[in-house]
Design a protein that fits this description.
4% strand; single chain; two-stranded parallel sheet; mainly alpha; disordered C terminus
Length: 204
């Protein structure tokens, strides 16, 4: 998923930059980017749109699969009669029809998955950009040289121990007007939904 790629990308960027961590006046902070991405209302809206699209194409595939099953059952019944209710030539045509329908279902499924991945990337790009801008602004405002990602989508952490005051998760959340799941936002913010992944969301 693109979210996972982004947070891992941030992790890699800061990892390879450790040669400068001990420079004079260096200030290092950290935050949970995955949590913030998941709490952003834009992410919930994206998940909802993707789920609707996923449901739509699942129903279409289910319709074709049901048609194929019915045709197979019909052909099997006709062939089981004694003597068979259809000729060998007709049976062969039905078999070819079933094989063609099976290929169509496979092709449709692959196409839908590609379209889903493309939609996800298109919807996620502006969310990731918003987060990047927020990180840059927070770093400047708080005087941080580095902001590390404390936890990515795979559960990997680069920060094993650090000063509590350098945990910028809540400050970044406040910047985006977000609250932890068990808290009520101070202002009206669209409720966040449970995300599907995004992911490890169609990795690209």
């Amino acid at each position: 998923m693109k979210i996972r790629k982004f947070v891992i990308g941030v992790l890699i960027i800061f990892t390879v930059s450790f040669s400068g961590l001990y420079a004079q006046n260096t200030k290092i902070g950290y935050c949970n980017l995955e949590l913030i991405l998941r709490l952003m209302p834009e992410t919930a809206a994206m998940d909802q749109e993707l789920n609707l699209y996923r449901q739509k194409y699942s129903e279409r595939l289910a319709t074709k699969e049901k048609l194929m099953q019915d045709k197979y059952a019909e052909a099997t019944e006709l062939l089981s009669k004694v003597p068979p209710a259809i000729t060998e030539e007709e049976a062969k045509k039905r078999e070819e029809e079933l094989m063609k329908l099976q290929e169509e279902i496979k092709s449709d499924a692959e196409r839908y998955e590609r379209e889903l991945a493309e939609r996800q990337e298109k919807l996620l790009d502006p969310i990731v950009e918003k987060l990047k801008i927020g990180l840059d602004e927070l770093a400047v405002a708080e005087g941080y040289t580095y902001i590390l990602n404390s936890m990515d989508a795979s559960g990997t952490s680069i920060v094993l121990k650090g000063p509590k005051e350098d945990d910028l998760t809540e400050k970044l959340m406040k910047k985006f007007n977000l609250s932890f799941p068990n808290q009520t936002p101070k202002t009206n913010v669209p409720p966040t939904g449970t995300s599907t992944p995004l992911p490890p969301a169609g990795n690209k």
